[in-house]
Amino acid sequence: MTVLALFHHAGGSAAVFRRLVRLLPDHIRPVPVELPGRGRRWREPAPHTAEEAVRDLADLLTAEVDPDEELSILGHSMGAYLGLGVAAALERRGGPRCQTLFASANLAPQLGSPLFADGTSAVSDEEVLARAAQFDALDERLLGHPHIAARAVALLRSDFDVCDSFLRTMSRTVTESRIVVCRGEQDAFGDEHTDPWQWRSVQPLTTLTFPGGHLYLEEAGAEPLATAIASVMSEPAQSRT
Question: pTM of this prediction?
Answer without folding.
Answer: 0.94
